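Hi D.,

Good news: the full-assembly prediction came through. Inputs first.
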Amino acid sequence: MDREIEAKLPHGVALSWGIVKQPQRGPKREMSIEQIVDAAVSIADKEGLAAVSMNRVAASLGFTTMSLYRYIPSKDDLLLLMQEAVSHVDLPEKAEGEHWRESLRKYVRVAMTVFREHPWFGDIPIMGVPITPNNLRMVDWALGAMEGLCLNNSEKMSVILLLSSYARATGMLVRDMERAIRAGASPGAVSGTDYSAALKQLVTAERFPHLHPVFMSGAYTGESDEDLTIGNDFDFGLERILDGIEHYLNSKPSDN
Amino acid sequence: MDREIEAKLPHGVALSWGIVKQPQRGPKREMSIEQIVDAAVSIADKEGLAAVSMNRVAASLGFTTMSLYRYIPSKDDLLLLMQEAVSHVDLPEKAEGEHWRESLRKYVRVAMTVFREHPWFGDIPIMGVPITPNNLRMVDWALGAMEGLCLNNSEKMSVILLLSSYARATGMLVRDMERAIRAGASPGAVSGTDYSAALKQLVTAERFPHLHPVFMSGAYTGESDEDLTIGNDFDFGLERILDGIEHYLNSKPSDN
DNA sequence: AATATACTGTGTATGCAATATACTGTTTAT
DNA sequence: ATAAACAGTATATTGCATACACAGTATATT
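Then the structure:
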């Protein structure tokens, strides 16, 4: 039965669900998909996604390049499995009395953590809606957090899309900054701080009437001491999203 | 003076601002940066980002690969300039009496349009906060839409980050679906619809207690006729964000 | 006017990538 | 016993970005 299901799914996805047929004859396998993916993740963690080549991964396990193709049909599939592997995150046990708002906050924090722990994560493009087990596990958890809320299924999915998008966008920003710092760059080569001196000559009041004052204040590159620090910056957006959801819940005619 | 500014900026960024020193001697140039970028964009529009190689772009203009390097120092810089080129979007003239909410809605719609018209746009990774002219022009416009709002500069920037993230995430989803359809796939190969039959056997009630009913209803893959169509799905999230902002404006102690 | 300089586009070469294909040897089903 | 299906390997193909050396050309300096 797994055979039919497998045929209908992209190879990488079928692999992630572990429903690929096991070989019946021939020599014993000396590697495993898990081993390969772990090796690839480890290389990416240390040296970035660009260092992950089939040759590099195979060599790190003591095999030749082509041996990997006995396990994983293409590099794209390997990337998918890497994404899936690090999406196996610790989701807190469902706290019974917890308010949905706090739960969804946690969801976004956990999702963002993946980007910080595996800076290469965001470098892999997403091809379509997530349909791998660990990704669905996160969706399942988020749906659990919204249990009992006065939202229909489509609305819940929209909320998750919204939160995931925000986690992705801000996770990548945080990653970019931390990556720059780790690379020895000054604290804000990527945040724009390094370039702000140069840019202040280019962002003129004539050409950018509204941006100009913001830029001069340093708020654009996040160097302003005005009020918000960089960390809180991301919280701000999240709280606005949650406010929006809450407002929708309250203002809704109490049907379904 | 441009010389000093140029030195402090990444090459591609300096090019985007047009502050790179013009050559004084030597033969006349037979190409221009604009021409090259246009050619690259045209190839990407027709055949995807993967088709954009230095060789391909040069050949399409009737020159050799290496000639491009006289204009643009690296492929990464070319990609940046491509991004910047298609970010030259039509932003509606500032309608005086328009409500900020409607203006910001327009902002997100325009930002999403870029992903639909240039499906490769989202395939180029973002390196850091945008600091190229057309990108800043969009930020400037959004700030204009928030003029007079009771938000400080940092808060306004956070709002723009929030909206841009949402535009990016949903723009890429729309793109993925349209791309799949254009590629001849059934109306929803990427949305998950094609796989939903197979997935329904994998998403069990035991393993995914909260996702299971949602999946069976078809809301996950967007095939449900429950209430929202796919298009409206994205509007829903946007309206929640705007609600959240509005709520924040109202609930704020009317300082600064 | 002479000449050095900075540039032009080109041709060639390097090194690395993904992966198709043909190979030898191994285990299991028949 | 033997054929089929597999394992890991070696080799080759194709395409990529880009370093470098070249011959010719326009300008700046003398």
